[in-house]
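A reminder before we start the practical. When you read a complex entry, don't treat the lines as separate problems. The point of joint prediction is that each chain is placed relative to the others, so the output describes one connected object in space. Small molecules and nucleic acid strands, if listed, are placed in the same frame. In the example below there are three entries. Take a minute to note the order of the lines before looking further.
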Amino acid sequence: MDYKRYFQPFFLIIVLISIQLFTYFTDTGYYLTQLTMAAYYSLVIIGLCVLMGYAGQISLGHAGFFAIGGYISALLTTYNLLPYKDHMIISFFSKTGLLVLRENLYGIKILNVHPWLACIGAILFTVLIAYIIGGPVLKLKGHYLAMATLGFGIIVFRIVLGTALFGEADGLSDVPAFTLFPGVEVSGNLTMRIQNYYIAYGLVIIGLIILINLINSRVGRALRSIHGAEDASDAMGVDTAKYKLHTFVLSAAFAAVAGVFLTHYNGGIGPSEASVMKSIRYVAIVAVGGMANLWGALTMGIVLNYLSLRGYFGSFDDAVFGVILIIIMLFTPEGLLRYQLLSQIKKVFSNKEPRTIHNEHS
Amino acid sequence: MNILEIRNLSKSFGGLKAVNNVSFAVKRESIKAVIGPNGAGKTTLFNLISGFLPCDSGSVLFNDRPVHGLKPFQITQRGVSRTFQHVKLFPKMTALENVMIGRHTHSKAEFIAGMLNLPWTWKEEREIRNTSMELMSFLGISSLADYEATSLPYGQQRIVELARALACEPHLLLLDEPAAGLNMRETAEISQLITKIKDRGITVLIVEHDMSLVMNISDEVVVLSYGQKIADEMPLAVQKNEEVIRVYLGEEDA
Amino acid sequence: MSLELLFQYLFAGITYGVIYSIVAIGFNIIYNTTGIINFAQGEFVMLGGMTAVTLNGFVPLPVAIALAVMITMIVGALIEIIFIRWIVHPTVLRMIIITIGVSILIREVALHIWDEKVRALPYFTGNEITSISFKGVHVSPQVLWAIGVCSIIVIALYLFFSSSSLGRQMRACADNRNAARLCGIHAKNMVTLSFVLSAGIGALAGCVVSPITYVQYDSGTGLAIKGFTVAILGGLGNSMAAVAAGLLLGILESFSIWIMPTAYKDAIAISILLIILFVKPSGLFGSKEAFSLKEF
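Here is the predicted structure of the whole assembly.
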């Protein structure tokens, strides 16, 4: 097992701690809020990176999975079950502590699903949806796959926008904090800002490590072979349909986790999280970072989302990502932080790299 | 004992009968060649056997069990592997990594084990790597291990693809025009390698145009023309077969 | 439902359906010539409508429309020249993302030029309440304009591709680019022409339906998706089928209000798209074998 692969997450941890300490000492703690939000969006992005860059499947509807996760969790933790409290199932759940009583914004007592249950339920539900639509969708290729995923995202958007249960255009708000351990909760509470920063990036680091492991494993190799030559991969005994599906579901799970946590952090969610532009944004960032470059996607994800959230792009927000997409695809389809570029830099420091036969003779 | 039996296999594309009621058998640990003029249906036949095309009628039996209708990866799991007419190596992966993919059916680490980097997978990875290196040595290409596969010269790519197919530990190996695009020296090398493979106990079915290779190493030869089988004999007999001569060289002027 | 209401829904459906068909035909023209799906197709419709509305403030309506169509055609040509022309060996993924990027760009530029208000051209004849009566059925003359103009577009295209020299050259390019070039056809110009043509018909259609459907800076995306649905429904590349499929979708959408809330109306097109993709991607009128031979 090569430990070198963990260099990047380790480096990231150092950078993250440095940033947090910096803001602490310069009393600029408010930066942490947007950084935290950027972290969650980056979680979606690294999952998508593995799907697009390694398994080679495009998804123009990934915001849909983020939204499903966020909305289901929000719905479960804000829908008042008190009127039904005499119903057999409800009172049973209530007694087992799966439902909690709390006060909403107006001081009225309401009965909701416990945040833990809601979180797990939302993620499982999203994974289920991904399994169901993944099967037929991944049989498609090229334009058809792109359009099908785009269509999926739009359907999710239309459903949350048009259904009263999901708050229509206003979305769902008053989503309660989500207590991870006693004293540590995911919420927008200012006293919890530093904790939430670390929670968010903790998830990112865990996600990063999981994906790095996956890429370097037998499965990762199989995924790259599918991307490289799907027929040949099939002929070599790789169940390509199964692997594509599992990768799709994995990336959907990442998006769902991000959706759930960000919703509780923000205290709410709106239909814009399911919009086409959000999905395009994710794809744009993966493209910029280098399709098959996890580290690049993550870095670009944090930086670009942070800038966007702080309003640096102003009213040109959407346009920026559109332009990024065009420029990257026109000039450097392999992404800015191409793997080749990085490995060429790495070559300077190490002498054991895949070399091509052309290099040897030059 | 026949490792492979093709019975009344047929496949049409629109109105064209690409493979028309073809039947033959392949004996264990032998080398059988499928030859015929261009358009005779040879590669279609291979695609039918390896599961890339569904057949219209007929059956394919591997070790007496039907494999027609199975997906390619399932057929590979049963012990059949193949190479392609135009080399299909995985780009952006080294030659060694290409061969390691061939070990997929003989290894187990799936998503969870991979994501958690469980310790038992380290041993499996080492085994995969070592077995792949051994295979590459067997074929004489171990020096190519770290080169990006598609950047290698064509002849060497063919051998890498061969190593990859062997990594599946097949009982039956399907080689689709292994000598295509190779010069005489490279063709002789490939012939030797194929014989070495047969000596390891692997049955080989080859589609080929190069007569020197076919006649030198095959135990039996099947001749196809316009989708139909016109001969199924030992090489010397095929060379004297009038129908075969007519199909390749045309009618003798009366 | 009264007969009167039935026809109202029907004509509404036909009006929208006709736009979808034109967008789909635009997709087909570019796809047939280049193999690319131009995600920015819907923006041509939007640009045509918006430009005409602005110009209408200065020049008479027919002139405004003509100018708007020409301007949009120029935009189409520019898109092809700047973004598409010089890419060697484009992969499907790359072209999809580029055209998506282009459509976003156009939309954002439109937002900054025109802001987010809806606009509409004045009715060509009469106004919103004039209607022509025929045996008890009332229809707005604009609907007839829309049907008429789009029918002329379809017929003109049909004649163009089947009878004119230029049309035949484009078809040759679509079939086999290298062979066409060997015959002296400038393949690159044919590609540009296909973009210009698609842009032109989109713009014209946009102008003629805008009094009824209104147009705003982001109308393009929805149209692109529905147009793509229609193109697939009829079989990608088959423009006659696209006409039928477009009308079908428009009418289905229109009558859907009967059974489900309006909010979900847009989801119908997507659902149809997904169903077709999963069940019969070659479309209602396409052949399965021809479809599987298409390269991606």
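Discuss with your neighbour: Chain C touches chain A at residues 37, 83, 87, 91-94, 96-98, 100-105, 107-109, 112, 221, 225, 228, 232, 261, 263-264, 266-267, 270-271, 273-274, 277-278, 281, 296 (CB under 8 Å). What might explain this?
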